[in-house]
Amino acid sequence: METTVSKKLTKVTSFLGLIAVLAVPGWSDEMPKTKEYKNFIGIKLARIEPGTFQMGAADTPLTAELTQDRATHPQGDFDEHPQHTVTITKPFYIGVYEVTNLHYELFDPQHRKLRPKAGPLSEDNAPVVNVNWYNARAFCRWLSDKENLPYRLPTEAEWEYACRAGTTAPYHTGNTLPKKFTDNSKRSLNLGQTPPNPWGIYDMHGNVEEWCYDWYGPYEAADQTDPVGRVTGDFKVIRSGDRSANPYYLRSANRLGTLLEDKHTLIGFRVVIGNMPKTKPLLLPLPQLYQTNVTQQIPPDINKGPNPKKPYFHEPRLFVKMPPGNRGPLYEKHNHFTSVTECPNGDLLAIWHTCIGESGRELAVAASRLRYGQKEWEPASLFWDAPDRNDHGHALWFDGKEKIYHFQGLADTVRNVALVMRSSTDNAVTWSPPRIIADHGPSRMPVESVFRTKEGFYALSCDKGPNILWISRDKGISWSKCGGSIGGKHATAVQLSDGRLMALGRERDIDGKMPMSISGDMGKTWEYSPSEFPPVSWGQRAVLLRLKEGPLFFASFCNKMMLTNASGRQHQVSGLFGAVSFDEGKTWPHKRLLTDDGPPHEVGSLNGEPIIMSPHNTESVGYLTVCQTPDGVINLLTSRQHYAFNLKWLTTAPPAAPTRPTPLDAKPLPEKKRLEKAYVLTESTVRGEWFARTEDFTKPLSTDRPLRITNKAGGFYERSADPAGFAAVDQKKGFTVELKTQVIKRKPEAKAVDIELYDGAGSRYALAITDTGVYWYEGYIQGSAFLPLAEFVPVAEGLDNTDAMHTYRIAARPDRVAQIYRDGKLIGMRRCEYRTPRDAYIQLGAGPGAEALVEYFAYDLGGPYQP
Q1: Is 40 exposed, middle or buried (CB count within 10 Å of its CB: 0-12, 13-18, 19+)?
Q2: Whole-prediction pTM value?
């Protein structure tokens, strides 16, 4: 039997729409008649006359000042479109100011305990915060009961109408917002510190965020009269913004939202007097792709899979299929932090972060479904997106019976996360209303590690702060944190057969190994020791799972790890590997590189850029997630690829591989003696920092002496969106960088000068120069500038780099191989190191205690050139 979410929801939304219209409080229809009204506790309200305006953002480009950050858009956010005509037919009164601490605490004296104890929000005349939507509505009803007037929260349309006050620009002040609206040097947020809009209303571009009446949902293009939002939803609309926000998020058209019970120090509200419009709310939008045409039947052959006595490995399948472009809510490039679960009907459901930058407000959660019996994952669709909130961290988990759980981080800032939970009993077609199970604070960001203990408890690993387990002893109704801190971040955990808990985490290495944590008291305390696995760092996350067959499965990343192959010999591998333990994690005798054992070929990694899969190498970064389906197949997902294999494959030794990877071949490159542009370094006499100006390198440089650089001066670093600079690099064309330098001195076993280049497309090139050699960084993730020389491998040694100025050139080819030259002579070739997505940058640094002379640091984006 097939069912669609649209049929199920049509009846629900029609019923809710009727309730929304009928559920109008029975207060007097009488309204004040004056232009301004002051109520019995001193709240001032301004009368707003009926009118028509354009709601939402226009297609006119915003100023460059507003859109300089990565997560902004020239025409505003996707949910501010389409701009549409709205008519307000009846007058209403709106608070001239936001509701203050003093006003609110006349209604709820206990709230004083939640008032900030110090700072700009602590004063009586500062806007009240730490109030959720229910609190704000209750305050309005209290005023209504006292005065027999229809107090309420403004509709979203009324709020924007009053905010614009007849203006059409991004702000009532015009195309830009004066600095006094965002000046954080003022400690007071007391009301009325900035000029009012033309209708005499204050603080609608900043101060604090403000609750509105409406359920959040997408705009529609048709003209609307007295709109009241959607019939229901997950989020209530919030408008304005806090004073610390980027002015982009303070525009008249900008939309925010959060769960009704959410409260923190950014959200307040203002009140309206006016009968609620009797307009019918809009129905729910159409369901997302992952929710449509989902069967509720359990396949009769769901337990039948590959022969468990024979190795099974399915070649990697792409599951992140994003629409082109970066307008939102889905983004093409930055997709990672994955979670996957099996569904009762045999489908696989995967979710992941989609964003431009992980700390941005645009971060949302995308989803894709691999339907039972199908070979390909569906295109991505939207799974969760609290508007203009950083939806950081999530996890999916199937309880093995009928219910799928979704755990979600909801942040006002990246580290101040609330933990949200919802569930589904129809294979993720519909979800229960989301609820906050842990208020904002550290250690609330869910990590992809959820399991049930022998006692029947649910355990969830959470990060952003100490990595702590949260436990539910009542099947998800209530949750409490265990208290003890797991060693490492993004930890993955299981329960051992003796009842103890074991976790493996990222960073905080012990003796150069990944930290292992053991708890005998359900996470209250932990004991730490080194595991046998190499540590992982930024952009990587391991997973741990008890398989249905009994043993433990672990997957992580390695660099130059030795594995025993079918010939009985060892060969070196790097990248993603899996391991199996039959003795509760004491030993891991079976380890395999997650590769198809075929000849070298390209596979798309975290941001879609290619890496080479071979017997020696596979994906080097990714936030892993894993589940095992009833047919025994282990489904391991990285940030873009889906690997499927069985236990027999894991315990079978890999075929013999060449002792070394295929050597790199030098290619004849076009010659270019002088590159296009050069950074001419200067040193600040005040702060001792390096600065640089870019000059046309085809002409003589305007400097008559080299600059003496030292580690004390830090380094030169350019990371810019300026299309005229290095940010315009295109890996598909290749590029060239050159440094002319002379080493003066360096500490033993340390770098003298180092160069780091990142093309913005996954490829990083890092070179270190000492007094006697040239070295290359082949590690993963961490910035080479922070690493000791021991982390680098030699390109050429036995040199004298101190006797004179020498020229070092990196010619980065389109195939991501660098040809490295010294004084015009090719001294080596190295493949790029993959790095997590970020803006392109170019960096020059000095090692600890080093000194060197630098004449120039030049680059050319035309392609790879040999001297």
Answers
A1: exposed
A2: 0.91
